[in-house]
Amino acid sequence: MATETVGSPAFIASGNTKVYKNFIDGEWVESSTGETFEDRNPADTREVVGIFQKSGKDDVNAAVDAAKRAFERWRLVPAPRRAELVFRAAEMLAERKEEYSRDMTREMGKVIKETRGDTQEAIDTAYYMAGEGRRLFGPTTPSELPNKFAMAVRHPLGVCGMITPWNFPMAIPSWKLLPALVCGNTCVIKPAQDTPLSTFNLVRTLTDAGVPNGVINVVSGFGSSVGGPLTEHSDVRAISLTGSTAVGRTVGTTAAKSFKHCSLELGGKNPMIVLDDANLELAIEGGLWGGFGTTGQRCTATSRIIVQKGVYREFVERYVARAKRLKVGNGLDESVDMGPAINEAQLKTDLSYVDIGKDEGAKLVCGGHRLEKGEYQHGYFMEPTVFIDVEPKMRIAQEEIFGPVVSIIACNGLEDAIEIANGIEYGLSSSIYTKDVNKAFVAMRDLYAGITYINAPTIGAEVHLPFGGTKATGNGHREGGIGAIDFYTEWKSVYIDYSDKLQKAQIDRVD
Q1: In terms of DSSP bridges, do strands 186-190 and 216-218 run parallel, antiparallel, or are they unpaired?
Q2: Does domain 270-454 bear CATH number 3.40.50.300?
Q3: For residues 215 and 63, what is the distance between their CA atoms, to the nearest angstrom?
Q4: Band of pLDDT at residue 16, cut at 50, 70 and 90
Q5: Disulfide: which of 39, 301, 335, 441 matches 49 by Cβ 3.0-4.6 Å?
């Protein structure tokens, strides 16, 4: 296997494997450990997409030091100027969209039409956040005293640490990096070890757009050796994690010790309600896309479908028939509907929940097996899997699987459906299919989740609205839209007294 050491992420020619370095203070550098790891194609593990640095604490320290130095300059760049660089990056991303999308399918596995959407989401985020550079608004307000002015302004935090997942390897890093940059922060990002190339592509584009040295730094590696030191570092003033609830508890606890700002976007077990009056064909299409898009590897995946008894059997029959026809394979094939699991461990987890569901008494009516023969023999493929007659408290209806496993649950009506939908530890996304506007508004009010869709599945968030959830899904912060701006800034209240005398606020009040 031929190897080539490079700094600039690019399409990897057949027969060559490129070695990617960390990006610290504007330079592509090898890790202090001298170790590397392979980024392999989950659809064909014979292909090594790239070799990346297996970094350690010293690399994190170097990246944070660079970001801390750069912050003193970057925070003084006017926000509209910072935003112009992000806009320039958006234009470059649009030009490179196909190249980066194909890279993403090779390292992550999801089908090419989805990776194009992932790249497009980064483009959309860049355009949106570029606009925010002229809209970092703060309130002005009347003072309670004469000849005095009061206002509040946004300030950047400093060095922000970011830990990103493998399922949206360009979109989610863009959710974190771009608002942080526009707000005047500097960044150290650790991409998921399964999909580092897409983050490198994003960062390279931002660098090509003119973002100065040290403002963005990338350190690749594993959670314990990179994510842990990044969270613990005293000069990191904010940490943003998208990942599992278990990891979120650890990161949140660690961040609290040094009073870091901490944003956690964690798990989900998302319900889609289908009432008797729903457009059934639309609901079936939505349930298939929500359940099996990205191989079910979304925190917003439609993993529970709650169907009113009047249409339950018809829905099940038609849904299962359609699920069986989904084409599984290499995502670079434009005709494929569903790609592989990300790795062997995730595939084993998916298959273990098939056994759990059967043991619990749910009825397996579709899939449930690994695909291993022929074109599947070198990848992590699984059939689209559907359980019916699932009880709400079964583990397959309560626990996040993060794979192509959908549970269908019968309900008596709207009130029962909402009770089932809310009866989990998570609260990320939710949806309802109904033609009754009154029922739709009741669902909007009563579904306890950060996101609710009407007549659409639980996936498909747009970048200009806040993204995040309730309960064990996170700690209350939001990504996307104004929610991201709120996280990556803090308020300073400013009082200007032009009375030319000492005024003692409430003490001087005359009744």
Answers
A1: parallel
A2: no
A3: 10
A4: confident
A5: 39
pTM for this predicted structure = 0.95
- Residue 299 is a catalytic residue: yes
In the chain, the largest separation of any two C-alpha atoms, in whole Å, equals: 86
* Tens digit of each residue's pLDDT (9 = 90 or more) over 458-490: 999 999 999 999 999 999 999 999 999 999 999
Region 47-72 average pLDDT: 98
Q: What angle do CA 107, 109, 112 make, to 5 degrees?
A: 105
Q: Which residues of 55-66 are buried (b: 16+ CB within 10 A; e: fewer)?
A: bbbebbbbbbbb
Q: Would you list the DSSP string of 338-393? A: B---SSHHHHHHHHHHHHHHHHHTPEEEE--SEE-SGGGTTS-EE--EEEES--TT
For 346-396, write each residue's pLDDT tens digit. Answer: 999 999 999 999 999 999 999 999 999 999 999 999 999 999 999 999 999
Catalytic residue selected from 121, 132, 232, 265: 265
Q: Which is it for strands 216-218 and 236-242: parallel, antiparallel or unpaired?
A: unpaired
Please give the pLDDT value at position 15.
Answer: 52
Q: What is the DSSP letter of 428?
A: S
**Structure confidence by residue, pLDDT tens digits, 108-148:** 999 999 999 999 999 999 999 999 999 999 999 999 999 99
Confidence of residue 10 (pLDDT cuts 50, 70, 90): very low
Report the mean per-residue pLDDT for the chain: 96
CB 62 within 8 Å of CB 24:
yes
Residue 217: name the closest of 263, 160, 155, 157 by CA: 160
Mean pLDDT computed over 243-263: 96
For 87, the token pair is: 């806009």
Collapsing DSSP states into helix, strand and coil, what is residue 142? strand
d(CA 432, CA 414): 10
Enumerate the domain spans of the chain. 2-135+147-266+474-492, 270-454
Question: DSSP class of residue 467?
Answer: B
Beta-ladder partners of 471? 426
Residue 487, both tokens:
């996280």
pLDDT above 80 for 225: yes
Of the residues 160, 187, 299, 366, only one is catalytic, namely: 299
Q: Which amino acid is at 117?
A: G
Q: Dihedral of the CA atoms 481, 483, 484, 489 (nearest 10)?
A: 130
Report which residue type is found at 38.
Answer: E
Buried b (16+ CB within 10 A) or exposed e, 259-279: ebbbbbbbbbbbbbbbbbebe
Tell me which residue has tokens 């300059």.
73
2-135+147-266+474-492 fold = Aldehyde Dehydrogenase; Chain A, domain 1 (3.40.605)
Nearest of 254, 252, 279 to residue 265 by alpha carbon: 252
Residue type, 133: G
Q: Which amino acid is at 275?
A: L
Please report where in the chains the tokens 């355009």 appear, as a residue: 127
Please give the Cα distance from 145 to 504 (Å, whole number).
Answer: 9
Is the pLDDT at 500 greater than 80, yes or no? yes
Are 131 and 142 in contact by the 8 Å Cβ rule? The answer is no
